[in-house]
Amino acid sequence: MRKVSVIIPIKNEEEKLEMILNEVKKLNPLEIITVINGSIDKSEEIAQAMECKVIVYEDALGHDIGRAIGAFYAKGDILLFLDGDILISNKNLYPFIDAIEQGHDIALNNLELIMNTKERPHSVSVVKKALNELFGYDELTINSMVAVPHAISRHALQEVNWRSLANPPLAQAIAMSKKLSIVAPEYVDVISRNKIRPDIHIEKSSESPYNWIEDVIFGDHLSAVHYLITEKGKRGGHPDKRYRTMLQNIKRLNAGKTVLRSAVICDEGKLSLEQLTEVIRTLKESQIDEILFISSRQEKIKMDRLRDLNVMVIPLFIKGDIFLNRAIGAVFASGESVLFLDERSILPAEDWEKLFKEAENGADLVLLNEVNYLDESHPLELINSMKYFLNLAAKRPDLWNNGLAFQPHVISRKALQLVGNSSIMIPPVAYLKIMEHSLPVSVVQVSTKLPYMDDAIKKEELIGDCIEGLSYFFSKTNERGGFSDGNRKRRILDELNENGREIF
Q1: pLDDT at residue 269 is higher than 80
Q2: Strand, coil or helix: what is 262?
Q3: Looking at the predicted structure, is the pLDDT value of residue 268 above 80?
């Protein structure tokens, strides 16, 4: 076995520490590094008696700083990270070491079963999953360096830099960006064994809807996305094939004209003329004043028939970009409330009426309630994890996975003017701009379940749009999205750089 350094941050863990260290010693490690900080119990004495390498700080260092300090001093070829309050059998630790010995760079605790249960996913699981998806490591699902146990190679430590371990999602982001080999070889139940601390797991800040630890973890994940944007641009290196310049030369007809209700239908050629006529019939029954049809294909019979139905037809003949079509529809629409839908969105008139009534009662954005996908889709698939992630970033967990994607929604004229028509092309950008302005958002439950449109946008474009939305979000907040850094004493890391490794 190659030389193993075991790193354990400790704060008042005398209750289980001796048992934990006894299990670790069975691994025959090169060293056990305990980073004792802010402790007022006998943790230091126990670690000394167990012949650990002991680093002591009188004050608490803050979340995960101890991991980085331990890594700084570690001499092993493999670094195994544990917590001082969770007892894990040595038999469950060997797979993490074995994975690194087999040539992998990082070995994570395999917690993906959590996402397969018939329960609505926890917000922390969602941000972990979303981060892996944004970096193209979908197979990791929710597996993360946030959770112990995990192990890394000396090569991985050099690639991610020991300082980044003070923010585990950032360290993982760097590793994924550099295409390191990351696996999850073993499941260890750390969820039920994690000590509940009311001050961090329950109490909420007056400035956040989340408890202390959630606020820090969400900020850590957002800083990891910020790293991606810094390295690869505002779309994280993902393609942008939209014809953005088209909007520059398009002017709204009859700019002074306004009506109460408009509907913008984006054509994909999925419905027959008869089916499309039925959609228009239901819209007219809900007293919509103006219907616009943005056509992506040249079908003269269909277009002539729609004009006969008093529909404004705008021929673009650009296929496969419903969001560009929406943006162009927004330019031409003259409604105080504008409904955006694609041609497959067939709802009865009373449901269209619900959406418009919400807008007319003061909501600037009216969404169809999509939370059922959180209850029915296990594991959660990409588009819903992205929308949920955006709501968590915007500190609107009450909106769950609802957002601007493929389901019909109504946007007020006021909101369109604030976000700009060009933002409609990139739904996460428009959505986060609406959140930025704290505009009223309403979620409506309708009587009809619409088909799930997972074929409407390619994965690369979806992820690129999400990253572009977050890029805008960072420009209005900071690299952590306005979330807490958890009272981390990062100056300690600076001092280590200056003073070197002379401690043991």
Answers
A1: no
A2: strand
A3: no
- DSSP helix/strand/coil, 32: strand
Are the C-beta atoms of 10 and 36 separated by less than 8 Å? yes
SS3 329: helix
Cβ atoms of 15 and 463 within 8 Å: the answer is no
Closest CA to 126 of 396, 391, 432: 391
Total Cβ atoms within 10 A of residue 25: 15
Q: How confident is the model at residue 345 (pLDDT cuts 50, 70, 90)?
A: confident
Helix (H, G, I), strand (E, B) or coil at 132: helix
Helix or strand holding residue 493 (H, E): helix 491-499
What confidence tens digit (pLDDT) does each residue in 208-237 have?
A: 899 999 999 999 999 999 999 999 999 999
Distance of alpha carbon 225 from alpha carbon 95, whole angstroms: 30
Summarize pLDDT for 290-303 with one digit per residue, the tens: 999 998 777 888 88
Task: Provide φ and ψ at 371, rounded to 5°.
Answer: -65, -20
CA distances from 392 to 97, 161, 261, 345, 404 (A): 34, 28, 31, 27, 15
Task: Say if residues 203 and 211 touch (Cβ distance below 8 Å).
Answer: yes
- Token duo for residue 346: 């067939």
What the block records as the tokens of 306 is 């729609």
Q: What is the pLDDT of residue 203?
A: 75
Global pTM reads: 0.95
Distance CA 110, CA 190 (A): 11
Look up residue 291 and give its two tokens: 């219907």
Query: CA torsion sign, 242 to 246 to 252 to 253?
Result: negative
CA 240 to mean position of chain CA atoms:
20
Q: Locate tokens 């197979």: which residue?
A: 139
